[in-house]
Automatic annotation (TrEMBL):
Organism name: Anaerosphaera aminiphila DSM 21120
Segments passing through the bilayer: 93-116, 122-141
Molecular function via GO: DNA binding
One Pfam family per UniProt: HTH_3
Gene3D superfamilies the UniProt entry points to: lambda repressor-like DNA-binding domains (1.10.260.40)
Keyword terms: DNA-binding, Membrane, Transmembrane, Transmembrane helix
Protein name: Helix-turn-helix domain-containing protein
Residue span(s) of domain HTH cro/C1-type: 10-64
Length: 159
């Protein structure tokens, strides 16, 4: 799934229908800024809007997720391709979540070891620093803004 490709496709379909961003936004009950973000590839439409968006643009859900018009002859093939792309993206998110959790766990352990082991101040402070660094790194990995943009979408569509 290519967010930028999908955004361009939404823009092209909207223009073919002779709609402005504001008119499409009014039909969907959202702001024109949201439509602009979709079309610029900065965000994706909420899953709850898929049906009305597709109806407004005269496209299918498969076409929306593929970011292109799909001829009837290749519809089944393309549908499977789009679904597999969504599934692969969901798996990638799972791996990144696990890595983030591990980093956070190791960070917490390293943070508390000096207090438990009664280590010297230099060693203890070094472990606390590394622990905090790993804790922050784990948090950043788990809350990566790019992944958040896809996560809500993928979990609602696939999960």
């Amino acid at each position: 799934m290519n967010q930028i490709k999908i955004g361009r496709f939404i823009a092209d379909c909207r223009k073919q229908k002779g709609l402005t961003q504001n008119q499409l936004a009014e039909k969907l009950g959202i702001t024109d800024k949201a439509v602009s973000k979709w079309e610029n590839g900065k965000s994706m439409p909420d899953v709850s809007l898929f049906t009305s968006l597709c109806d407004s643009l005269g496209i299918t859900l498969n076409e929306l997720l593929a970011g292109e018009h799909i001829p009837d002859e290749v519809l089944k093939e393309k549908s499977e391709e789009v679904l597999m792309g969504v599934i692969k993206s969901k798996r990638s998110i799972g791996v990144i979540q696990i890595i983030g959790s591990i980093l956070m766990g190791v960070g917490i352990i390293l943070f508390f070891i000096p207090a438990i082991k009664n280590l010297g101040s230099a060693t203890g402070m070094g472990m606390v620093g590394i622990g905090l660094l790993l804790l922050v790194a784990g948090y950043i990995v788990k809350s990566n803004i790019i992944m958040q943009n896809y996560k809500w979408f993928l979990l609602k569509v696939v999960g």
